[in-house]
Amino acid sequence: MFVAGVIWNLRPPKGSGKKKFLTTPADSEPSTPAVPNLNYTKNVNRRTKNLKAVLTQERERERLERERRRLEREEKMDVDGEHADSTPEEDLPTYSSIEAPPSVLPLRKYCDITGLEGPYTDPATGLRYHDKSIYELIKGLSASAAKDYLSARGVNPIVK
C-alpha cells in the first residue's frame, strides 16, 4: 500500500512488534559523506570518569601540591640552611616556656621499688608499692633503706 510517499511494510521483521515506515528514495535528502569537525577536542573535564581516571587525577593533584609546598619551603631557606625570616632564639617556645593551667586529673602514684603504678601505701614506712609481693619486700627493708627510697622520691623521710 502506498500513501503520500510512505510505504507500509505489512510484515515486520522477526522479533519486532511494531510496524516501520519506509521512505522512498525520491523523498529522502541526498546523502552527503560525514565530515568530521576539525575544531572538536575531547572534554577532559567531563563529569563521568572511570575510577582509574579519578584516582590518577587525585594522585597528580596531591603530587603537585606536595611539590608546591616543597618549593615554598626551599624559597624560605637561605644558602646556609637557615630560615630567611627566622625568629630570635628567645622567642621560640620551649617545653618550659609554654604556659598551661594545672591538670585537673589526679596525680599518678608509682611504686617506689618497681616504678609501676602503685595504688597501695605501706603505713609503717610511707613507701608506695605495686602488689603484695613488693609489700613482702618492703616489710623486710631496714629503716635506712626505706628512708633512702623516700628521699629518692623527694619526700621528707619520716620512718616510724
Q: Cα distance, first to last residue?
A: 127 Å
Mean pLDDT across residues: 77
Assembly state (oligomeric): single chain
What share of the residues lie within helices?
A: 25-40%
Number of strands: 5
Shape: elongated
Which sheet architecture does the biggest sheet show? 3 strands, antiparallel
Radius of gyration: 44 Å
Give me the secondary-structure category: alpha+beta
Our count of helices gives: 3
The strand line-up of the biggest sheet is 1-2-3
In terms of per-residue confidence, which ranges show pLDDT below 50 for 5 or more consecutive residues? Answer: none
Order of helices and strands: EEEHEEHH
Report strand %.
5-15%
Can you walk me through this structure?
The structure is a single chain. By secondary structure, the chain is of the alpha+beta class. Among the domains are: 50-84; 108-160, no CATH class. It is 28% helix and 8% strand. It has three helices and five strands; from the N terminus they run E-E-E-H-E-E-H-H. The strands form two sheets. A three-stranded antiparallel β-sheet has the order 1-2-3, with no helix packed on it. A two-stranded antiparallel ribbon has the order 4-5. It is elongated and about 115 Å long. The N and C termini lie far apart (127 Å). The mean pLDDT is 77. It comes from Hermanssonia centrifuga. Residues 13-39, 57-100 are annotated as: Disordered. Residues 109-138 form the Vps72/YL1 C-terminal domain. Its main location: nucleus. Residues 57-86 have a biased composition (Basic and acidic residues).
